[in-house]
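Lecture 7 notes: from sequence to structure.
We start with the chain below.
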Amino acid sequence: MRVPAVLSCLALAAGALLVASPASATRPPLTCGSTVTVSTSLRADLTCPGPEPALTLAAGVNLNLAGHTLRGPGSRLGIAVPVAGDVTVRNGTLTGWGVGIQTVGSDDGGASGTVTVQNVTFDGNGTGLDASGDLAAGRYGKSHVVTRSAFTHNSRGVLAGWWTNVDVSRTRLADNGTAVVLDSSSLTLTDSVVERNTDGITLIEAGVTAQRTKFYDNGRALALRFMSGATVADSLFKRNDVAAEGIGYVTSFTLTGNTFADNTTAVSFDESQGTLTGNTFRANGAGFVSWTPPEEGATVLQDNVFRLNGDGIRIEQGDGRTSLGGNTANSNTGWGIYAPGVVDLGGNTARGNGSSPQCVGVVCATRPS
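Predicted structure tokens for the same chain:
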């Protein structure tokens, strides 16, 4: 008597599943010009000659490109994200766009949320990620987090302006015109690679904090202009034309524990200032060069090692606000330490350099007997 009852229950359950299946059917595939209001995945590569933007994301949407490519006509906007709310774009490629991803609309002081970009390749675009946004949308609170991604062969990899915050980690920025352009904004760069760009990171009235990042084979790897600041630690600058350059009123560096190797010029200050502590300069055309002192601020070089460069330390105009202490400059082909007019903090050494005397402007320790 109980067997028929069990069979009846199973039949009812199977019927319920059949009835439910139409309601849970897969959503229709994304098409060019779609507004995406629920989290979804791209099912195949999608090429969009128009309209613009190709896809518009609503707040709260997670767009999984699922390994596919969203391809543009060589111009226009690929993905538009909202001024307010969180969105995520992950796991795919954006190529052929004037701008790959951009916040669209005016914030009217109401920008919020985070644009998260994860495991996305931006290749061959005008600008990969425009964190400034259309009409400077998002400038008062929209954050951008980029991780495990790549920016390659773009005119600009990342553009950030108008009080925008961008956090980039475990990301490769290679073969771009300029990898990152910052204007009145801030960047945190961690565990990343910046290589073979015409210019790496360019700042105007902006700030960058970089850690454990490698800068290879760029024109200017890190360039500061007018009221910009950079804090860089435990990073490697190699084979750049200029590794770190500051030009203009109150540009400031804090460089700690970095290695500068095989650059044409490692660090160049012109009306710039900063603190260099515990860095290694090896086989550069010039190690540290200061041309014109800043109108304000001070520079301190402490406990750095300069070896096998052209000039180790060369300061053209000491102004009494530049200080040297504990630096070692050995076996450079030009000057070891040339720093007239600086403050001598003591403990500097220079031996085996091509130009004599070994130290100018500071008293170098004698060779131990």
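Points to note: The radius of gyration is 27 Å. Confidence is low (pLDDT under 50) at residues 1-25.
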